[in-house]
Amino acid sequence: QVQVVESGGDLVQPGGSLRLSCSASGVTLDVYAVGWFRQAPGKEREGVACISGLDGRQYYKGSLKGRFTISRDSAKNTAYLEMKSLNFNDTGVYSCATAGSTRCGKTWQLGSVFGSWGQGTQVTVSS
């Protein structure tokens, strides 16, 4: 049984940084693509970043590249999302997904390449 658990969400001031963690059991994150998504109040879920299994190729929502970095630690079977220069528009519930395809592919932002999702962690950017 695959379980995905996010952590690290917090209240942060504009300009601040956060690192979110995605811990998984029942699946090896080195093999499968791992995606981070977020959903702001009243808005649809959007894909933030994805890292492919095996080759580790990274993909980002265009406007976030340079501020957000996705990575993974094989020894801990954990993926991370480093976020810097946070602003009000980054507020939302951030979720991690994996256990589907080994590669992010061209449609990862739709979410269909992932089989298991976590419950999410709240990120609030506020002064």
Task: Explain the layout of strands and helices.
Elements: E1 3-7, E2 11-12, E3 18-25, E4 34-39, E5 46-51, E6 58-60, E7 68-73, E8 78-83, E9 92-98, E10 116-117, E11 121-125
Parallel strand pairs: 2-11
Antiparallel strand pairs: 1-3, 3-8, 4-5, 4-9, 5-6, 7-8, 9-10, 9-11
Comma- or semicolon-separated keywords:
single chain; 127 residues; mainly beta; 7-stranded mixed beta sheet; 11 strands
TL;DR of this structure?
This protein has 127 residues and is an all-beta fold.
Question: Can you walk through the features of this model?
Answer:
This protein is an all-beta fold. It is 0% helix and 44% strand. It has no helices and 11 strands. Strands 2, 4, 5, 6, 9, 10 and 11 form a 7-stranded mixed β-sheet that branches. A 4-stranded antiparallel β-sheet has the order 1-3-8-7, with no helix packed on it. A hairpin with a 6-residue loop joins strand 5 and strand 6. The mean pLDDT is 96.
